[in-house]
Amino acid sequence: MADYKWPPADKRALIGKRISRLDGPWKSSGRVKYTYDINRPGMLFGRMITSRYAHAKVTHVDTSEAEKMPGVKAVYTFPTSSEVHWEGQEIVALAAETENQARDAARKVHITYEPLPYLVADAEPAKAGAQFTKEQSARTTGDVAAGFQQAEVTSEGRYGVPVITHCCLEAHGQVTEWKGDSLTVWCSTQYVSGQGAEYSTGLGIPANKVEAICPVMGGGFGSKFSADAWGVACAQLAKKAGRPVKMMLERDHELMVAGARPSMYADVKVGAKKDGTLVAWDSQSWGTGGPDAQGGGPALPYIFRIPNVRRKHTAVLTNIGPERAWRAPNHPQMCLITMSALDDLAAKLGMDPFDFFMKNIEITGARSASYVEEMNIAAGLMDWKKKWHPRGDKASGPIKTGVGLSIHTWAGAANNSNCAATIHPDGSAEVSMGTQDLGVGTRTVVGIVAAETFGLPLEAVTVNIGDSKYPPAGASGGSSTIGGVSTATRCAATDALNKLFAQVAPSLGATPDQLEAVGGQVRVTANPSKGIPWKQACAKLGATAVTATHGTDRTITSAGVGGVQMADVSVDTETGVVRVNKMVAVQDCGLVMDLKTAESQVYGALIMGVTYSLFEEKIMDQQTGRCLNPNMEFYKLAGIGDVGELVVHMMTGKGYDERGPIGLGEPPVISPGAALSNAVANAIGARVPELPLTPNRVLAALGKGGMA
Amino acid sequence: MKDRDSHAENPPKRPAAPGADDSPEKNKVSRRSFIKGTGIASVAVSASVLLGDEVAKAASLAPPAAKWLGPAAVPVTLKVNGQSHTLDLEPRTTLLDTLRDRLDLTGAKKVCDRATCGACTVVVDGKPMYSCTVLAIDAEGRNIETIEGLAPEGQLHPISQSFVDNDGQQCGFCTPGFVMSCKAYLDQEKNPTYEGVQKALGGNLCRCGTYMGVRHAVLEAAQKLQKGGAA
Lengths: 708, 231
Fold this sequence. Notes:
The complex is a heterodimer. Chain A is of the alpha+beta class. In chain A, helix 13 (442-454) links the parallel strand 18 and strand 19. In chain A, helix 6 crosses helix 7 (228-241), helix 9 runs parallel beside helix 17 and helix 13 (442-454) runs parallel beside helix 14 (481-504). The longest helix of chain A has 24 residues, at 481-504. Chain B is α+β, with helices and mostly antiparallel strands. Helices cover 34% and strands 11% of the residues of chain B. Chain B has a 5-stranded mixed beta sheet with strand order 2-1-5-3-4, with helices on both faces. In chain B, a hairpin with a 2-residue loop joins strand 1 (74-80) and strand 2. The longest helix of chain B is centred in the last third of the chain and has 16 residues, at 211-226. Chains A and B meet through helix 1 and helix 16 of A and helix 1, helix 4, helix 5, helix 6 and helix 7 of B.
């Protein structure tokens, strides 16, 4: 068995360099076809009719008038439609010749409801009532009472993050087309290889009759794993009509049901000794992720293993769309609560939070040494010691500035992926796997690893991904993709190369294990002048290509990364507007495969972080049970002028490279909320307890009569 | 602090009706300026109330109707990327739906469908416009440029190349809109500034967070175009 490993730094031609993404030209030319862009011959347009109520019995559904409308070719009633549990839940779908006709017909579907009691307000458990709450977990470590007796300074506060949505720019949806009993689905998904099982379950057809195609997709962030009820409905419409159907969610529907990050709030008490040593934590937390209370409660406090801890979490069950995993599930919320509480405690202790965090860095566990390194680098890039001041900027005038910091962690262990690597006699090479590229650079990294292994330039290797006909690969969730796809590719390419070496070795008067592939040559490692060009080597294969398939190899990847972020803000204390001046992110992720796309991931996470910290909130109206901002005018995303100066530093070299590649999608999006909230507290001298840091909340924190 | 709320400060991209007076006076009620005027409290008001009011105000600015069209399909000739297409379209059909569903020009994307996010941006008579909020009949007789017209298939316009080189894209769904806003901007502004870029591209939204790359891409594209790299 081959000994798989990553090449050392001085032997890397591609890995860790700044390489432009392979699909960049497809995208910036506007030529690549996303799911939403697929136009098939004879294709119909699907549209869904959804619940207007947060909770209701559906007493009657009459589609007879809609069926007679011009252009309508198929109508489908969702099997779960006798009772709806949130606004926007699907009841009927139909397909028509044009989008306009589908819209007209949708208005002719008549549904009668019998409204039922509901809760959509993000209320604390006592206000929500027993019917809508479920105690999820309670846990005690150490002796909390004794811990607080030891504490010389304590701080208490309430901190929270509301429900936000994913707001993928490409809505959820798909194009379905039948050929006999086989189904082709173009779908915007984070799990290409899993769609066979999804549609098999939903339609009662064998998984091997389903082909899922997704070469590029317009954002997922954790919300696009399942085929969803609309995927099955779309396939059923296509079957009934005998024609392909495209059905993408309308933007309001997308924001109502296709993504929700659970809220989390907590009442926290935390104590330390005068020198800053943390001794005790007590928290009661709650939050809502919709009608279900899945998973356990949050692991508070986040990262810092305080010796005496008591925590209790209550789920609030609400009639909003069900929760979906949102980039680093639970972590941004736990981080905001913990780092805000610690920052408030540092202020009470009269300590610079940098010194306070460093004082307690040992109790962060296995990554503490990296945190120290990262804290110092971040402080340098932010000029922290110069910018930090005790709570409350003393500068005259209404504009106050401040800085804040936060740390985060994420596991990012590899998923199970399989790669097939093939070398052809003409010298061409390809790697195939049923993974997907969410825009993070997966396609590029697979190409980099294969080309590095073959000693070829990147453009010499064809990368086939985004189709379920390729070897199965895991879902892209939880930052698990890089570990899976890069190790599977490294191993499969190594195996294929060894097969080539076996054919070439005799002509070089060597054994296969004495050969290497470098710089477009196959040569003897100990005597590099003894070699032949790659193409000539491949010609020795005769008529048949060599191929090898390999799965994830966990010996050359690992898990557990950390990062430090710092924010510098200005706050207008007259208007309450928060402006980001600068953010610094220092991040490790093991062996960086492509420095350019890795940095982009972190820049993107900072920007997404600024967005949820300053603007995002799914606003629900308890009076009507409906969402008040299911559109992009009022569900705000940051624009190019809102994000300030961003600085990213990736940890590389000794201590990091030897860990192998580890996922990067989640970790850098965890800290921005806490770093920004702490910066605002530092600027104005008061805590804004909840995100987003909107003008009304800031003014309320200043005691100026905001609405929060 | 003048840039503190670029969402509200961005110049409106609302298209003018054909033949309408293009003066700032005539266009002063834009969706953005209207909503901006209502302030933060408007979030608590039903969006449909706002939109209804806005539509009413906008309608009052339209020139007197010359002729009644529809509701049945009417022949419409559109000049897209220098090529004429005559199509039968219901007058209510948007330019975006026409480009995507009838001409298979899918570079312009449908995202918000309400003139907010800029993913559908095309250039009409030299101005960037949200094609989701332009009726196809209103685009008749005008010069419509879509991203597909920037360069022949297989080649990259210098702006597209700069987006690749500076990694100004991730999932890429917003990218064609950014590229077209950038095209319209650089057609007018040969020496863009950092602040100018933030204004000109402030009407386009990205979810993955590619603004860092976009900033660099626009400035670099301007330099390339100055050196005569125009496609």
